[in-house]
Amino acid sequence: MASPTAVNFPSDSTTQLLPFWIAQAKSDHDLELAAKARQVAYGKHLPEFGDRLATPDVHDRDDDFAVLLAYSKLDSSCIGTVRIQISNNSPLALETSFRLPGGLRTGRIAEISRLAIPASSNGLTLRLMLIKAAYWYCRANHVDRSFICVRHPLDRQYRRFDLEDVLPNSEFIPMQHIGMIPHRILWFDVNAIEERWLQNGNPLHTLYVSVFHPDVLDNLQARTLLQAAPDQLRFHG
After folding, report:
1. Can you give the pLDDT at residue 230?
2. Chosen CATH of 16-96+104-228 out of 3.40.630.30, 3.20.20.80, 3.40.50.620, 3.40.50.2300
3. Residue 19: which residues within 8 A CB-CB, separation 6 or more?
4. What is the pTM of this model?
5. How much of the chain, in percent, has pLDDT values that exceed 90?
6. Which of 135, 139, 142, 156 is nearest to 68 (CA)?
């Protein structure tokens, strides 16, 4: 568990420090911390499913999956986690329950899952930052579309993200990889969502794009944009 290192930002960027940092799991110990966070968070409302998450599963060690953890700067304890699957070698986990339409399966796709925040302290900020970490992880890995399955009533919290429903009428279907609990399948275009937030005046544009959080994945946002800059210059040239 290493704290983030310094990366230079553009001189005109806005930066904001957080009371925690987010890093990718690198060891079995990290995965065990993530599993414990899942058990506690899900166990509050879904005790049986929470118990099933008490230990790392086979996907946690799969090369297609990345487990992200948030650590408190106060005591270095794990205070949250999220997982991203990029469909390189196998279908997305959600497709064990629902076959995505062909138009949504083209290109590079990902699923954001296992979002878990054991305690209520900094809950909203932590949730937003874990999803920001997942979003920038997808951008850095050239994902075209990302999917997330959410149960009721938590699906209401995702209205702020301007996501699309895969199924009509906000339909919920049981998800095998989430204890057969009915979930709503939402998705977004990774390359277009930034412009959508901007056009809609969504405050997430400021939080996720205009403001840099150096504590999120070792400045992944800045590193991704700096890496893309030469390509953008060549394109506009």
Report:
1. 62
2. 3.40.630.30
3. 72, 73, 74, 122
4. 0.91
5. 80
6. 135
